[in-house]
Amino acid sequence: MKKIEAVIRKTKFDDVKEALVAADIEWFSYSEVRGVGTDRQERIYRGVIYDTSSIERILLNIVVRDINVEKAIAAIRQSAYTGEVGDGRIFIYPAEDAISIRTGNRGDATLFISDGK
């Protein structure tokens, strides 16, 4: 199992969510976060200067079976891509175990609906 953390643009969340569902990723959590990068740009909108170095982002937390890691990464990359600075980052960590609170199942069995997948 692997844990995938992805930091994406807030405006791309719906696209990424749909791509993950289409890739058969059955569950993930997310939260709104703010990030600071090295790119220091100022944008002017209606005469007001905005500092874009601190930007609202979405942090996705996904735990997948090893066979679904590349599929999840591809779904995130393709749907979050704009080609501009600030598209985000994906981090992958090993996940030692998972336990279903309701059933007590452990490991991969907690990550998908048991229908022969």
Explain the overall architecture.
The protein has 117 residues and is α+β, with helices and mostly antiparallel strands. Helices cover 19% and strands 36% of the residues. β3 and β4 (48-51) form a beta hairpin. The longest helix has 12 residues, at 69-80. The chain is elongated, with a radius of gyration of 17 Å. The mean pLDDT is 88.
Would you summarize the structure shown here?
The chain is an alpha+beta fold and 117 residues long. The protein is built from 2 helices and 6 strands.
CATH architecture: 2-Layer Sandwich
Main sheet summary = 4 strands, antiparallel
Task: Kindly report the CATH topology.
Answer: Alpha-Beta Plaits
Class, according to the CATH hierarchy? Alpha Beta
Structural domain count: 1
Q: C-alpha Rg, in Å?
A: 17 Å
Mean pLDDT over the residues: 88
For the termini, the CA-CA separation is 15 Å
Quickly list its features:
elongated, alpha+beta, 117 residues, Alpha-Beta Plaits, two-stranded antiparallel ribbon, four-stranded antiparallel sheet, single chain, 19% helix
List the helices and strands and how they pair.
Blueprint: E1 2-9, H1 13-22, E2 29-36, E3 42-45, E4 48-51, E5 54-64, H2 69-80, E6 88-94
Antiparallel strand pairs: 1-5, 1-6, 2-5, 3-4
Helix pairs in contact: 1-2
